[in-house]
Write a structure and sequence with these properties.
alpha/beta, Aldehyde Dehydrogenase, Chain A, domain 1, Aldehyde Dehydrogenase, Chain A, domain 2, 7-stranded mixed beta sheet, globular, binds nicotinamide-adenine-dinucleotide, binds 4-oxobutanoic acid, ALDH_GabD1-like
């Protein structure tokens, strides 16, 4: 059985429907005593869970994978209500979690296998991959299931245990995940959902039994959690914001290229860390590209994310999120940028912001430096590959980036110069087996793929002399 700790104290944890602004349910934060119990439980579970053969943990993790698909409809409805994600994307997210848990359940035993070393001084040496103990996960609202899966699947396989603090706007999905763990046979304490406050998070990181912390969230939270981890000498993985460049050098079908760029940008209503937040387009196709984007954006009306009627768009996750994007766009427009479509903040308390196309961004505008976490296609015009790469790298972020061209070699050469954790050519690679993470102020560490299982692990040398 897993544990969901929640009691007393007024709380920020709540379900608020972004399509209407209605507060549907509120939850109370954990008491300090429950925080202690959560860490006690995670430590106690580690003693037995971490000692199991990995093949036995894989059986449980496989069942977790199955449950995400068996419950996909119900899971999808939960996050569509909590954060406004269109239902089909919500369901796809739940099903993607199946892929992630399956990947680690299947590949985990190989990824965690002993690695023999040819000891040059004699003797026998292996590197063992051992669990480290209880970990803290701090997760955001934008992919309420997938972000958790990326962290939890490899670590449960390794034998680590998890205390999970989800975003304040995702309490029902947080509890649904805990229920899946429980029903799959994850033992009590091996996965604990905790409605913790930020102050309590600091206490948990300081607890000597907690061996590491993984945060997916904003740069602001990353700086705080990274500092707390450093003070307490704890390993940290930080998956933070991004402003990914999406360079289009040429195209045989500019309209189709614009449609692909638009669909990529509009996924999750623009609230993806690795969304193509800066489109950088060669001058000879620029006008047609912007026209293609504008055609996509024009005429869209607010709709219910649960039904996704044609010609509609869904709300952002919260009123604050919609207002923040609106302010960034307004700042740009007031300084001379051109808004080709959208950009309307709908009346409160709903959280609709009409998908926008924005050009003419200059360095004095907030949109040049800041992450735009919403449905805004920002397009820059360039006249050479050199200018494109310079602009692409002129950012504090370094999450992902992509270069598109009919000449793969030309695109490959330019993508090779991207200062990012994920460089792509003619498409964006993303799957359970492909490592995910960034450099610069997008954070450090990796999730997914083989590297995702190599973060919170004791790579112990085991040496036997001749
Ligand atoms: N790199 C990635 O893989 C990735 C993935 C998804 C989202 N993100 C980024 O996340 C951001 C959007 O998510 P958000 O608005 O939920 O981020 P956020 O930083 O506000 O919150 C993320 C989580 O951190 C917690 N948190 C925030 N401040 C804290 C503090 N001082 N102490 C303890 N916990 C704290 C929140 O309660 C939440 O659970 C965007 O910047 C996006 O790019 C990055
Ligand atoms: O928000 C960050 C992750 C988004 C994704 O992996 O598609």
């Amino acid at each position: 059985m897993t544990t969901t700790a929640q009691q007393s104290n007024p709380s920020g944890y709540r379900v608020q429907n972004p399509a209407t602004g209605e507060v549907v349910e509120t939850f109370e934060t954990a008491t300090d005593a429950q925080v202690v119990q959560a860490v006690d439980a995670a430590q106690a579970a580690y003693e037995s869970w971490g000692a199991l053969p990995i093949a036995e943990r894989a059986v449980v993790v496989k069942r977790v994978a199955e449950l995400f698909t068996e419950r996909a409809d119900e899971l999808a409805s939960t996050i569509t209500l909590e954060m406004g994600k269109p239902f089909s994307e919500s369901k796809g997210e739940a099903e993607f979690c199946t892929d992630i848990f399956n990947y680690f359940a299947t590949e985990g035993p190989t990824l965690a296998a002993d690695q023999e070393i040819n000891a040059i001084g004699g003797g026998r040496a292996v590197v063992q991959r051992l669990p480290v103990g209880p970990l803290l996960g701090i997760m955001p609202w934008n992919y309420p299931y997938y972000q958790v899966a990326r962290f939890v699947a490899p670590n449960l396989m390794l034998g680590n245990t998890i205390v999970l603090k989800h975003a304040e706007t995702c309490p029902r999905s947080a509890m649904a995940i805990a229920q899946i763990m429980d029903d799959a046979g994850v033992p009590a304490g091996a996965y604990v959902n905790l409605f913790a406050t930020h102050d309590q998070i600091a206490d948990i990181i300081a607890d000597p039994r907690i061996q590491g912390v993984s945060l997916t969230g904003s740069e602001r939270a990353g700086a705080i959690i990274g500092q707390l981890a450093g003070q307490n000498l704890k390993k940290a993985v930080l998956e933070l914001g991004g402003s990914d460049p999406y360079v289009v050098l040429d195209s045989e079908d500019v309209k189709a290229a614009a449609k692909l760029a638009w669909d990529t940008r509009i996924e999750n209503t623009g609230q993806a860390c690795n969304s193509n937040k800066r489109m950088i387009v060669m001058e000879d196709i620029y006008d047609d590209f912007v026209a293609g984007l504008t055609e996509q954006a024009n005429g869209l009306v607010p709709g219910d994310p649960a039904t996704e009627d044609a010609g509609t768009f869904g709300p952002l996750s919260s009123r604050a999120a919609a207002e923040a994007v609106h302010e960034q766009v307004q700042d740009a427009v007031s300084k001379g940028a051109t808004l080709h479509a959208g950009g309307t903040l709908h009346d409160g308390p709903s959280c609709y912001y009409s998908p926008a196309v924005l050009t003419g961004i200059t360095k004095d505008m907030r949109a040049y430096r800041e992450e735009l976490f919403g449905p805004v296609a920002v397009v820059y015009k360039v006249s050479s590959d050199e200018e494109a790469i310079k602009l692409a790298n002129d950012t504090q972020y370094g999450l992902g980036g992509a270069v598109f061209s009919t000449d793969e070699e030309r695109a490959r050469k330019l993508a090779h110069r991207l200062q990012v954790g994920m460089a792509n050519v003619n498409g964006i690679g993303e799957d359970a087996d492909l490592p995910f993470g960034g450099v610069k102020r997008s954070g450090y560490g990796r999730e997914l793929g083989p590297l995702g299982m190599d973060e919170f692990v004791n790579k112990r040398l085991f040496y036997i002399a001749d």
